[in-house]
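ARCHIVE CARD
SHELF: 3
SLOT: left
DATA:
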Amino acid sequence: MKDTTFKSRSLMPKCFFLIVLLSLSCFIFVFSKSAIFISKSGQVIQVGTGPNSEISPTLKIRPGYTSYDNYIHHQLQKTTNPKLRKIWTTRDWERKIHVFTQFFSDLKHKKLLSNESKALCVGARVGQEVEALKRVGVLDSIGLDLVPYPPLVIKGDFHHQPFDDETFDFEFSNVFDHALYPDKFVGEIQRTLKAGGICVLHVAISRRSDKYSANDLFSIHPLIKLFNGSDFVYTRKVDGFGLDTEVVFRKKNAII
């Protein structure tokens, strides 16, 4: 009887250790499938880094961000760089406006954009694309960026646009590669687009983006998957300041 009691007691620490080990393994597994970032403002941002870090083999999230604020700080290093901002507003100003004007004129010719469109440029920096829209006749245009540039660009985070549902007829962006959470980036575009509204993205497929990019895209298929509330219209090759592919979507009447 004593031997049996002794054996039972000796097994208890082993069983306890096994339970702790299994619990820890489960915790690590769950944690690896999700990330919770808390910004300085107290906003909780939770994203599944399992499916989101590789939505498909052709869309990968770059590692290294310890918090959402860390990601924002990294993006601001480029956006607030005084040398870059001087170049954007002087030497590059007219050159980029000229190129954007050609892009938007082509979209008008294809009936995807009109003078009556209410337009948003997502991640517009100092607003060359906004100015280009206005020059081709789309006067009701505004840009969104972490750093405002009045009157062309207002302050905002493209992961959480500061606009009501179904506000815009047209949205353009060439900063998809800067999205830490591509699903949120696309979700906000689809939320703020009106039914039948057009989204045009310029992305890099054939070459890698710069050190401030948060993701790498290797085909347009992940975009088609992410735009689950929109119809794929077309894609074509472009030469847009290091971005080589234009992808166009039209929002459906109802988000799936």
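SLOT: right
DATA:
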Amino acid sequence: MLSRRLALALPGLLLGACGGGAEPVAASNPSAGPLLALPPEAPAQGGLLLGRTRPGSRVTLDGRAVSVAPDGRFALGFSRDAAPAAELVVTTPGGQTERRSLAVARREWDVQRINGLPGAMVSPNAQQMARITRERERIAALRKVDSDLPHFAEGFDWPAHGRISGVYGSQRILNGEPRAPHLGLDIAAPTGTPCATMAPGRVLLAEDLYFTGNTVLVDHGHGVVSLYAHLSAMDVREGAMLARGQRLGAIGATGRVTGPHLHLGLHWFATALDPQPLLPPA
């Protein structure tokens, strides 16, 4: 089932919709639809925007090519510090072009201070930095995956339930040292609490990483990838196809953490997004 927030936006980006609370459906002939359909709400920093155009069209965002599904759907992501405006250009196979200036809403961010972390975790030594570099290079390569899976536009569900202990965009100061912004959603729950995938997809990574511990990446298509970190157990293997809500592991406290929780991330290629607005009301 589509999340309520995403379902509210979908009528503006699909070519047709049913009333009475039913899920929107595409028109029988997408090529006869509008050149560009977007939800009425303006995108925000950290946001995922879904759009639709005529099949076979080319789409660019600020000059960057965007992959388009066979039915004309596409995804756009905006970073935590995205500029206040972006230019979207659509060109049909017949050469018709539409340019759309997108206003990107600015957000305010929280600041968190966390003390008491082991010194090695805050300031890794040379050997640890070599491991971190290798892991970052592998993740960077996976961030370039642009599969044709259609699940990016099917809505997202909560992977687990618990207290929200960290929000996207906040900056953490660890042992008095400012760090990079927190680019995910933290869900605190006891070790062993089941964790499921937000949406159908293919497992890109299931590995123990230095900072995020046992970590699973799931590809939903067109650059949209969810991340599940600090797991106490990983129940999936790389390459496996997962159904919506399928268990992939259990919440834990592996990696750099102060207690058991799930760090939930969502990316559009290398752009980290805020998963919380895409989830149903808790």
